[in-house]
Write a structure and sequence with these properties.
By secondary structure, this protein is mainly alpha-helical. The protein folds into 2 domains: 2-85, Hypothetical Protein Yqey, Chain: A, domain1 (Orthogonal Bundle), CATH 1.10.1510.10; 94-144. Helices cover 78% and strands 0% of the residues. The protein has 7 helices and no strands. The chain has helices at 2-14, 18-38, 44-67, 71-85, 94-108, 115-126, 132-144. The protein starts with a helix and ends with a helix.
Length: 145
């Protein structure tokens, strides 16, 4: 993934795309910082975790700017998030997510105390290709029914 970011960074620099250059440099720094923090090369899963964290930060910043009335800054944050999402794996569609939740409920039971186990199972089976908050909401909704 880092090689792809490097290649895209070079291309963005050549095409003078300042926003993309800025975002990709930030991603490289975030990945480098995580590598220093863990004191070992990052696995693909760790790289994805870092990119998800960066995307989530952009999402939260956009929400804050929107609430504060700074729509132009919110739009910039959304554009940055879009660039970051290009490096994340394709998310699982809703139908497959429902199937995973159903499997987990069948495995652990439909009791509210099993919510954490069900969410953990779905997250591990999805390989990080699903938003944890979405899974939690769907599981809680399913268990309440």
């Amino acid at each position: 993934m880092i090689d792809q970011i490097d290649a895209d960074l070079k291309q963005a620099m050549l095409s003078r795309d300042e926003l993309k250059v800025s975002v990709l440099r930030g991603l490289k720094n975030a990945l480098a910082n995580e590598k220093i923090k863990t004191r070992q090369p990052l696995s693909p899963e760790q790289e994805i975790t870092v990119l998800k964290r960066e995307a989530k930060q952009r999402d939260e910043a956009a929400a804050g700017f929107t609430a504060g009335g700074a729509k132009d800054r919110a739009e910039k944050e959304r554009l940055e998030k879009t660039i970051i999402e290009n490096y994340l794996p394709q998310m699982i569609d809703d139908e497959d997510l429902d199937d995973l939740i159903e499997q987990a409920i069948n495995r652990f039971g439909q009791e509210a105390k099993q919510t954490g186990a069900i969410i953990g199972y779905v997250m591990s089976q999805s390989g990080g290709r699903v938003d944890g908050a979405k899974v939690a909401a769907l599981v809680k909704q399913r268990l309440a029914a």
